[in-house]
Amino acid sequence: MPYLIDASNLGGVLDGARGARDAERIVAFLVDWARTRGRAVAVFDGVAQPRVAERYGALEVVWSGAGRAADEEIVRRAANRPRDWIVISDDRELRRRCRDLGARVETARAFARRLERPRRAAVEGGEKPSPSAEDVERWRRIFGDGD
User: What is the arithmetic mean of pLDDT over 126-134?
Assistant: First the structure.
């Protein structure tokens, strides 16, 4: 089942106000997880940042555009086959709107905790940490997209 992620909201959960603006960190947090999910769409507020690609394998990155909130893009996408989506956000109104459409919802806080558990265990077990979004993009430029 695909995920629609309120990305700036998730960033706020990860690192407060600074984290909500750090698209590269949010993408890096999601990229490994998305490989096992089939499809995930991270929707950010505002205009595209040039250092963030539109796609990282199964993770699609979408920007709401100038003067438009990510919430509106999330609702628009959720309205198309709502029972197929899981919407991730701590925004109660957004979750309510998506739930009313028929989508499943989960808080960003619960989602982040669920994703952090395996990472923490891997780091504590001596495994190599996940690559940053910048690393992934650099490797894609060198080796190609693989799609």
Answer: 61
Q: Is 71 helix (H, G, I), strand (E, B) or coil?
A: helix
- What pTM value is reported for the model? 0.78
The three-class DSSP label of residue 146 is coil
- Per-residue confidence (pLDDT) for residue 70, from 0 to 100: 95
Angle between helices 133-143 and 23-35 (to 10 degrees): 70
Token representation of residue 36? 């096992």
Instruction: Give how far the C-alpha of residue 74 lies from the chain's centroid of Cα atoms, to the nearest Å.
Output: 12
Count of CB atoms within 10 A of residue 100's CB? 11
CATH fold of 3-143, please? Rossmann fold (3.40.50)
DSSP 25: H
pLDDT score, position 121? 41
